[in-house]
Write a structure and sequence with these properties.
Layout: H1 53-70, H2 115-120, H3 144-151, H4 156-172, H5 183-190, H6 199-219, H7 230-242, H8 254-267, H9 286-296, H10 311-318, H11 322-325, H12 329-346, H13 352-371, H14 375-396, H15 399-402, H16 408-429, H17 431-435, H18 443-473, H19 483-506, H20 513-534, H21 541-564, H22 573-577, H23 585-613, H24 627-644, H25 651-674, H26 680-683, H27 717-723, H28 730-759, H29 766-770, H30 780-803, H31 823-839, H32 842-866, H33 878-893, H34 901-907, H35 909-914, H36 922-937, H37 959-967, H38 972-981
């Protein structure tokens, strides 16, 4: 682990004294870069094309020269190459600058240090030899253009060729602004082989220029390309061909005309912005990488950690490239931040001024991030900040391996930069953060907390290896120190060093940095000492030595933590609560867990024994719930009281085990209370087969005693069992529901009592009771809700389909509808409602009555649609059915004292939808049935109507529902249709 960051090369001083820089060299021999190659990929984006940094730098310089020469709004004109020479260059054979020279040739002054550099906190570059007082003229360029040429290491011949081409471009494009032309296309046309030293140099330049066009228009266009775009296909073919054989670029050359047409067509596509701009270099990431090259040129070629003195004037010209690159201030701020940071890394990580400057730029970036909604910007921003933060955290997550007293100032700069980047990433980019209240998240403190925990855990592991090595080395010596005693001594020294060296730096972002560090060390050592204590069988001298060393270490750690947290709101209690004592805690915890297991086992046995004897008698108490529920709740309350009276320091830590066990016991009670009571499906009768009513004979034998029911039903075994068991009667089921509801209500009381216990517990943390930790019953609430639902439905459907079967299923509308109406069913139903009202708790009474109403509506529909051949209806019977259904609804409305009218209407929607079918004439019903069946089955049903399956989901537009109405329609037309179509029997 110690070697993990050895290659990071963080300098141990703010500035080392390098060897004096060489004298300013002639332009033909630019100084080579001494930047260190880093493993940092540019977060501004990787190009798909094979463009090197040198290619990008050359293209960026071409753009810079083009916009600088035309930024004053003047036509593109040629300026003598004298601008590319130094004042004292021996080969200056050109005329001096003319007064009308464009902005590119603006004179430079270095009389005062840059205001921009002062604002960024950056130093001035070192003076080259011969430039000091009395040493003659400074060998500095005279113009912005000349300075940029030197900074970007462009030779005089290359610069002269570019500006020569620009003069030709201006002649060919009179009156056009530079942003309205595709610069590489124009350079291709204006520069010939004769402008280069040899054919190979020309071909290399041409390939690079075509690659730039390819990158800007094909690989990274501002406006996404359609794959079917013919111009893009044509341009790709031309470029691919030019890689093998140079293209002719004459003005009237056919290949050049094709190239121009394809390029201008693609470059002229607009995304809604200013239409006259030529979009050839403003797509991400090409434009960002080009702009990165321009910003890199702001660093002095002779002192690569310093910005040039003329930074304002140079930056002013660089920003004029925005019109071509599609840049803006927000992208500039982000790119400049990355360039400053990357320069620090690439120059040996010794110039902390660069980190400070990058950190300062992040202030502007943060402002931009808060106000900018551009998704592309957000993506680049996230990538850049993630790269910076990732680099910083590689050092900070193990800062003991990276920093020491000699370079602690560098650590402070890196922490500041990393925290700034993290804040923007979390506060301004993260959607999750925005959904929360900002006060709930302290990004800086959270990051520092993570660094402290990670680094100290890493160094603690190293100390353990060291201690083990020391023990092995002293193995043959008399009375060697135990490993944990050595480790305690090393951890104590580490704690003091942490307090003196690192905590003062981290305290800027985390007010209790030292306290957190001590808590981590305490926890790390605590893990080892707990294992040691749990294995102690005898009190040996080694054990005493380890325990004494551990006790001394604990006192030292607690003392530092208290001193660091003395100014906190709670005086350091929160930190101390994170440092539970080392004494036989593991043994105590095991004893407590054994105590919990014993209590829970007894409770479960009690539940089994008492529920077997429970009679569920409504007269057992006034509130109508089971005595066993009162007793089980009392036992749980006593168990909680006994737990919090145990003389242990870890009540909150072990409370989840106790609550989980009590939760399972209560859930078990609820499960046993509803066991054997059936469900809705237990009582709903099996749907009888389809049959026709017996026309003309429905009155025969109506009053005669039949040998067997016309619709024999196979009874559910569970129903038969419950018939002989009084514990499953209606009053008993009501008591079961009351009992389950009572348990659910008492859970809130128990949880509040647990919070009270926690507040009175000295070992509890504030969050133990403020955030509800370790006090929730997880399974019982849902079990109670499901239990009430199951028992309520079971009770309702038992009453309707089992207890009242004789007046509903066996009696309603059998024979003549007018003589077998719903009144007997309503009378029996009302009697049961009175029983329920007398027993049920008012909080669940509405639920049960609602389920009973739903069961009644289901039973009413089942009689109408699946009543078998013993029932037959004419159209005139509609009024009887409608009036009976109204009576059924009125029963539950109870003159306004029952269920709400809107609730009754909600559950009666299906019935109200089906009832109109009974007044519809038979021919219309048959036609509707045909239409719905054809629609459901398609053309396959035209030759013969299929028999629609029974879904049980009744609906006036559902074929099976319509067919069942026809089956019970008492007229000749329905009978003929059913006989002809399905040959249905008249008897089951």
């Amino acid at each position: 682990m110690a070697s993990l960051f050895r290659d990071l090369s963080l300098g141990h001083s703010k500035r080392e004294s390098p060897s004096p820089p060489p004298s300013l060299q002639p332009p033909s021999r630019m100084p080579s870069s001494k930047l260190i190659v880093t493993d940092l990929e540019s977060p501004l984006g990787q190009l798909s094309s094979q463009l090197t940094d040198s290619d990008l730098r050359a293209t960026a310089y071409e753009i810079f020269v083009a916009v600088s020469r035309t930024s004053a709004g003047k036509a593109l004109t040629f300026t003598s190459s004298s601008a590319s020479n130094f004042v004292d260059a021996p080969n200056n054979n050109h005329a001096p600058h003319s007064p009308g020279t464009p902005v590119l040739q603006k004179s430079l002054t270095s009389a005062a240090a840059s205001k921009m550099k002062k604002a960024l906190g950056l130093k001035s570059p070192r003076k080259s030899p011969g430039s000091g007082p009395g040493q003659g003229k400074s060998k500095r360029p005279l113009t912005v253009g000349e300075l940029m040429r030197c900074q970007m290491r462009v030779s005089e011949s290359d610069d002269s060729r570019i500006r020569r081409a620009l003069v030709r471009v201006s002649a060919a494009q009179v009156g056009r602004r530079i942003e309205s032309v595709a610069l590489p296309l124009e350079l291709l046309q204006q520069l010939k082989v004769s402008d280069f030293t040899d054919q190979q140099e020309y071909e290399t330049w041409q390939k690079r220029t075509l690659k730039v066009i390819e990158a800007g228009l094909l690989m990274h266009p501002r406006v996404p390309l359609d794959k079917s775009n013919l111009n893009s296909q044509r341009l790709r073919q031309i470029i691919n061909g030019a890689m093998d054989r140079p293209i002719e670029t004459g003005k009237n050359n056919e290949s050049m005309q094709v190239l121009r047409g394809a390029v201008m067509s693609l470059a002229s596509r607009s995304d809604g912005s200013i239409s006259e701009i030529c979009h050839w270099a403003d797509g991400i990431p090409l434009n960002l990488r080009l702009y990165e090259m321009l910003l890199e040129a702001c660093f002095d070629v002779y002192d690569e950690t310093s910005l040039v003195e003329e930074i304002e004037e140079l930056m002013e010209q660089i920003k004029k490239t925005w019109i071509i690159l599609g840049m803006s201030q927000i992208y500039h701020n982000l790119c400049f931040t990355w360039v400053l940071f990357h320069r620090f890394v690439a120059t040996g990580q010794v110039e902390t001024d660069l980190l400070d400057a990058a950190d300062g730029q992040l202030v502007e970036v943060a402002k931009d991030a808060k106000t900018t909604k551009d998704p592309l910007y957000a993506k680049i921003l996230s990538s850049t900040l993630s790269s910076i933060l990732g680099w910083a955290e590689k050092r900070l997550l193990a800062y003991h391996d990276t920093f020491d007293r000699g370079n602690i100032e560098t650590m402070q700069c890196i922490v500041s930069l990393g925290v700034s980047a993290a804040r923007i990433l979390v506060e301004d980019i993260s959607n999750e953060y925005r959904r929360k209240r900002k006060g709930e998240t302290d990004v800086a403190r959270s990051r520092i907390d993570t660094y402290i925990r990670s680094s100290l855990r890493t160094v603690f592991a190293q100390l353990m290896e060291k201690a083990d090595s020391s023990r092995r080395a002293s193995k043959n010596q008399p009375n060697p120190l135990p490993v944990l005693a050595i480790l305690a001594k090393d951890v104590g020294e580490l704690a003091k060093n942490e307090k003196q060296v690192y905590s003062p730096v981290l305290k800027r972002w985390h007010p209790f940095a030292a306290g957190v560090a001590m808590a981590i060390l305490h926890a790390c050592y605590g893990n080892e000492i707990k294992q040691f204590i749990s294995g102690i069988m005898d009190l040996t001298p080694d054990a005493v030595q380890v325990l004494r060393a551990a006790d001394k270490l604990e006192k030292d750690l607690v003392q530092i933590a208290v001193e660091d947290s003395v100014d906190s709101d709670d005086g350091g209690k929160a930190i101390i609560r994170e440092m539970p004592p080392y004494e036989a805690e593991a043994a105590i915890a095991n004893l407590v867990k054994s105590w919990i297991r014993t209590r829970l086992d007894r409770l479960k046995e009690w539940v089994d024994r008492n529920l077997q004897q429970e009679a569920w008698n409504p007269q057992a108490n006034q509130e109508g719930f089971a005595p066993s529920a009162v007793e089980v709740l009392r036992i749980i309350d006593e168990t909680l009281d006994a737990y919090f009276q145990l003389p242990i320091p870890m009540h909150p830590a072990l409370l989840p085990d106790l609550i989980a066990g009590l939760d399972k016991c209560l859930q078990y009670y609820v499960t046993k209370a509803k066991s054997g009571c059936g469900s809705r499906n237990t009582y709903v009768p099996t749907m009888p087969a389809l049959t026709r009513c017996e026309i003309g004979s429905k009155f025969q034998g109506v009053w005669k005693k039949k040998e067997k029911s016309p619709n024999p039903q196979k009874k559910n075994p569970q129903v038969a069992t419950m018939n002989g068991d009084s514990s499953f009667g209606i009053p008993q089921l009501c008591v079961r529901i009351n009992t389950v509801h009572r348990i659910r209500a008492e859970l809130d009381v128990l949880e509040k009592r647990i919070i009270t216990h926690l507040r009175n517990s000295e070992s509890a943390h504030t969050e133990d009771f403020s955030n509800g930790l370790a006090k929730r019953f997880e399974s019982t609430p849902s079990a109670c809700i499901e239990g009430v639902q199951q028992l309520s439905e079971s009770l309702a459907y038992k009453i309707v389909f089992h207890d009242l079967r004789h007046v509903l299923w066996d009696g309603l509308y059998v024979g003549e509808p007018s003589s077998s109406r719903i009144e007997p069913f309503l009378q029996e139903l009302e009697r049961n409602l009175i029983i329920i009202a007398d027993i049920m708790h008012e909080r669940v009474r509405t639920r049960i009555v609602t389920d009973l109403m739903r069961a009644s509506f289901d039973g009413f529909l089942l009689v109408l649609l699946a009543g078998g051949p013993s029932r037959a209806f004419t159209r005139q019977d509609y009024e009887i059915i409608e009036d009976d259904f109204k009576s059924l609804k009125d029963l539950f409305l109870a003159n306004g004292d029952g269920l709400p009218a809107e609730l009754i209407e909600k559950f009666g929607i299906t019935v109200r939808g089906v009832l109109p079918l009974y007044r519809t004439d038979t021919d219309s019903l048959i036609e509707r049935f045909r239409r719905e069946t054809l629609e459901a089955y398609g053309s396959s049903a035209r030759s013969r109507l299929p028999l629609p399956p029974t879904s049980g989901e009744w609906n006036p537009t559902e074929p099976n529902t319509l067919l069942r109405v026809l089956c019970l329609r008492n007229d000749e037309a329905a009978s003929k249709f059913l006989k002809k179509t399905y040959n249905l029997p008249k008897k089951l």
